[in-house]
Amino acid sequence: MGDVLSVRLVAGGISAAIDSTRGARLTSLRLHGTELLGGAPHEGPGPSSWFDGSFPMAPYAGNVRDGRFSFEGREHRLPRNNGPHAAHGLVEDAPWEVVRHDARSAELAVALPPEWPFGGEVRQRVVLTEESLEVELRCRNDERPMPATLGFHPWFRRDLGQGPVELEVAPGLRYQPLAPGIPGEPGTDLGQRPWDDVFTALAAPPVLRWPGGPVLTVESSSATWMLYEQLAPALCVEPLTAPPDSLGTPRGHVVAPGADLRLTMRLRWDLPG
User: Which domain of life is it from (predicted)?
Assistant: First the structure.
């Protein structure tokens, strides 16, 4: 099914759209005609592909400091695309193959490019129902161990027409910044809103409440979250398997040959009235 470029999923009055040519990103999530996904004007040194929809980040999420990391005694370098750092992985704007799809689900896959020295592939499965949208991201390598972190980067519209959204979230710990975009160790100083920070130990999954509109709960298999509130049109609630700059460190992950690193995100909504 490699010639399929765009996939539309429908479940009753709910629809979602996936663009396989732009990193398997979700470009739309509509609840009875109301669009929840948005974007923001491009700013900063990163590419414009970081500023719309909901895209997967693999085989690393967030920044890799100075575009370098060490693993099994060797230093590796990655393409730097965020000032001095490498960020958001290597597949968020790549063409993916649509492996299979039907009216309510789709699976897409992409091989990791030569810039990633370990090989491997990434797969994303999306399932839509009338109550939720669930996305599962998997990264694997059949040949050798490799480090990896995964993430989802959804942009949610702030205003659906009746006032700004309220992000309800109660983190217990914030990874204290060593530098912009580079988290250190977790601590109880939660910083000041609007946030651009990484958190863990949340009391409950994040909830977005739009006045007169839906209530959206963002659930994940992971306990690490990037929360970004600093641009007016949209905000980001990003589940990550580990904080940024974790490749080759004890807080990162090592994927064994033939095994998967997995991350899920479930968007569950309650409709008004």
Answer: Bacteria
* pTM as predicted: 0.97
Asked if 95 and 49 touch (Cβ cutoff 8 Å), the reply is no
User: Is the Cβ–Cβ distance between 229 and 128 less than 8 Å?
Assistant: no
CA dihedral 122, 52, 4, 117 (to 10 degrees): -30
Q: Residue 232 corresponds to which amino acid?
A: A
Query: Does 216 score more than 90 pLDDT?
Result: yes
User: Rounded to a whole number, what is the distance in angstroms from the first to the last CA of the chain?
Assistant: 40
Do residues 98 and 106 make contact, with C-beta atoms less than 8 angstroms apart?
Answer: yes
Residue 62 has pLDDT above 90, yes or no: yes
pLDDT above 80: residue 85: yes
Q: How far apart are CA 32 and CA 266, in angstroms?
A: 19
Instruction: Indicate the average pLDDT of the chain.
Output: 97
Nearest to 99 by CA among 89, 91, 108, 88: 108
Domains of the chain as residue ranges with CATH:
6-270 (2.70.98.10)
Q: How far is CA 257 from CA 72, 140, 151, 212, in A?
A: 15, 7, 21, 49
Q: What per-residue confidence (pLDDT) applies to 182?
A: 97
Residue 258 has phi, psi (to 5 degrees) of 80, -5
What contacts 237, CB < 8 A, 6 or more positions away?
Answer: 154, 156, 167, 169, 206, 208, 218, 225, 227
In whole angstroms, give the CA distance from residue 136 to residue 263. 6
pLDDT at site 2: 54
Q: What is the pLDDT of residues 217-266, one digit of tens each?
A: 999 999 999 999 999 999 999 999 999 999 999 999 999 999 999 999 99
Q: Characterize the bridge pairing of strands 97-101 and 182-187.
A: unpaired
